[in-house]
Amino acid sequence: MAHTKTTGPTPRLTPISRQSDNTPEVYRSISHVSGHDLQPQALTATVDEDTSEIYDRLSPRRKTIIVAVLSFCAFLSPISSTSILAATPEVAKEYNTTGSVINASNAGYMVFMGLSPIIWGPMSQVFGRWPVIMLTAVLFFLLSLATALAPNLVSFFVFRALSAFEGTAFILLGSACLADIYRPTERGTAMGWFLSGTLIGPAMGPFIGGIIVTYSSWRSIFWLQTALAGTGVLGVFFLVPETAQHKKITELEHLSKKERLRAIMHMISPIRVLKLFRYWNQVLVACASSALLWNMYSLLTPIRYVLNPRFHLDSPLLGGLFYLAPGMGYILGTFMGGRWADRTVRVWVTKRNGVRVPEDRLRSAVPFMGLVMPACVLIYGWTVEMSVGGIPVPVIALFVQGIAQLFSFPSLNTYCLDVMPGQGAEVVAANYFVRYLAGCMGTGVVLPAIQGVGVGWFSTISALFLGASTIGVMAAIRWGESWRKATDAKLEKRLQDDASGGQVLGEPEREQKDTPAKNGVLDDRHPA
């Protein structure tokens, strides 16, 4: 099934809640691509994603509260990734090292932000969203406290890296939770609000850090982070329910303990996430997300080093004011970016007489990624390089590119959820794995690169990266569906060959007729 109809009758389904002890009814949908490494299962219901009552389990008010709490939690890890930038000289002085070494800790922070999703994503598919979010929230709180108390440079590095590993789970699982409770035609708007926290955090972090380090110790940055993390723990515990429509752990109740453990280890393996890059559309969208994050961190990281000398500023607080420009852009984009993505989907659904294709959502990001953001980056870089235009020019460029990012990220994130129903957390995990590694590279190379070639040429490289990734997105729009069909056909054949050869995950061989497959699409266990 290559397309999803937005009209039609809906089967009656039983809501799932964290409070219920009953085994939930199995929900199924015919997905665009399958959970090909899952057990073949008998089809019990076909769910129309856009009209299904599973998205009406919670009231609009409750959904809004969930989005607010998850957005707040998603704000925490990104703000920690940049809040220390304004205090880099002070941290280096206390630990008797250089600013470059402290910046290396920021790059390490980004590496662990990238590694985190490929662990927590599969775990949330198996055990549910709430237990994983709650566990990582508590660990993030404890590690933030440990960072504030770090007695030496080694412990500072270790606690920072581990807190990044826990904190990124908020971003990943927040996206998955939204897919659990919002219809595909509504997700863009909700995703825009949710992502505002992840983008406002990096922009506001250096400004807040600048204020703190001007009037207090740099350790106060992490005491504030600890307090915010504690608030997040309380918010998740009291206000966020289990949203998963199905937990894969329930599929294993009939297995022995040994077989169940083996099956769980298979289900939570990071290799499952990395195998998603067999789909070319996923590769290209991940590259586009990487270009956006590379651009964001390569702009934010060197502001104090680039703009303070350019405009003769000598205070962390004054340098931190420049971060307000992209931050305000992110806030303004929050109100429009997600709605623009949903509107684009509805327009194309109308053009196709009610048929929804996931790639249509990507169309909303193309003009902003391909034109607006590269133009802003080039204007910013070359006006600073050539010392023309005064303060307003880089401020306006940073502000407009901030808006453009919020018109791009919701489309890319929501596409990951739409294109592979039932594997939303894993697809987003794969995307975040690549994008945060790109953010790590941007953070790590930006200062040496600017010192080597200048901010103008480095901005040109970033603009070319954005342009090339936009071409990739356009290719995914044009050929994404055919790529999915071709890859699914190969995976279906492999699954049938494996099934004919013996047992899978401890279960007896099933007949081929129990594995629905049509047009290169396999059945999946539950909708995203």
From TrEMBL:
SUPFAM superfamilies: MFS general substrate transporter. It is a multi-pass membrane protein. GO terms for cellular component: plasma membrane. One of its GO terms (molecular function) is transmembrane transporter activity. Residues 507-528 have a biased composition (Basic and acidic residues). Keywords: Membrane, Transmembrane, Transmembrane helix. InterPro entries: MFS (IPR011701), MFS_dom (IPR020846), MFS_trans_sf (IPR036259). The keyword Transmembrane helix applies. It is found in: Membrane. PROSITE patterns: MFS. Residues 66-484 form the Major facilitator superfamily (MFS) profile domain. The chain crosses the membrane at residues 65-88, 100-120, 132-151, 157-181, 193-215, 221-240, 279-300, 320-341, 362-383, 395-417, 429-450, 456-477. This is Major facilitator superfamily transporter. It comes from Metarhizium robertsii (strain ARSEF 23 / ATCC MYA-3075).
